[in-house]
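Narrative of accomplishments. A recurring question from our advisory board has been how the design workflow behaves on a single, concrete structure rather than in aggregate. To address it, we present the structure tokens for one chain from the evaluation set, followed by the sequence designed for it. No filtering or post-editing was applied between the two.
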């Protein structure tokens, strides 16, 4: 941002010129922010459109070329602290960042951009959401199992056996003036209580949305929606089950989809380490 401001200011001689060009400057900055979210913040790739287009194509090819073996290596890098070794392609999708957590400082590998992160999340979900692949990932030497489950544990709600087991262990979190109630998952048929598909939802601002567009008419029951941003409020994912709220409240309003929505209940999924509860 500072470089962009300096670049724009250097061609303006007076404050009056700046005021006149402000709208165009802000428009260019919006475009640059979009490019940053697509390929990362390196200046050499975001200020020239032709260079940016070439870089975006390189990133696309690098992502399309990821194999299952490659994904296992990325899991070890992201969750196990394995050092990234340059191989001629990963620099397009991984960057090194300086991290400070509870006073401990270190260098960590991170997806190069928000769009790339969303694509990697989607690939992780496809490759490792299955029980056999999840176990395989958890058994990788040096991999932090807690970190793995915190990142993609939400996918466990796509498996009937897992949800059936969880239903028997759920505890009601009391609120002042509220009586204990059963979870909606304990009230519906076993076949209807788990998500049977997943979609990565694009919430990131200023991007060319590649995740699913989320609106009232596109929502479907038993589809696990996973936000593409790591700091999505309260939940890590959510889905709907076809059951009315136990208190008789209305899940959805009127209109063409109103009747359908009245028979849905929202299920929010949050996966955190014990210390964060």
């Amino acid at each position: 941002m500072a470089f962009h401001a300096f670049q724009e200011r250097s061609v303006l001689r007076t404050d009056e010129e700046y005021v006149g060009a402000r709208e165009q400057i802000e428009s260019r900055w919006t475009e640059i922010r979009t490019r940053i979210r697509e390929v990362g913040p390196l200046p050499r790739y975001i200020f020239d459109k032709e260079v940016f287009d070439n870089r975006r194509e390189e990133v696309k090819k690098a992502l399309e070329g990821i194999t299952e073996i490659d994904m296992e290596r990325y899991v070890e890098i992201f969750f196990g602290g394995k050092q990234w070794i340059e191989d001629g392609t990963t620099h397009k999708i991984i960057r090194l960042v300086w991290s400070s957590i509870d006073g401990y400082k270190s260098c960590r590998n991170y997806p190069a951009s928000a769009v790339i992160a969303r694509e990697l999340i989607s690939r992780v979900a496809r490759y490792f959401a299955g029980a056999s692949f999840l176990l395989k990932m958890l058994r990788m030497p040096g991999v932090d199992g807690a970190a793995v489950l915190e990142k993609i544990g939400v996918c466990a709600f796509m498996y009937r056996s897992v949800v059936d087991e969880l239903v028997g262990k759920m505890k009601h979190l009391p609120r002042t003036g509220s009586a204990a109630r059963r979870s909606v998952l304990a009230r519906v048929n076993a076949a209807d209580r788990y998500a049977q598909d997943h979609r990565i939802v694009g919430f990131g601002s200023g991007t060319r949305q590649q995740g699913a567009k989320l609106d009232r008419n596109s929502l479907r029951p038993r589809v696990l929606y996973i936000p593409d941003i790591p700091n999505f409020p309260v939940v890590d994912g959510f889905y709907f089950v076809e059951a009315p709220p136990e208190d008789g409240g209305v899940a959805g309003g009127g209109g063409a989809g109103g009747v359908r929505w009245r028979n849905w209940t929202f299920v929010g999924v949050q996966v955190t380490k014990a210390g964060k509860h």
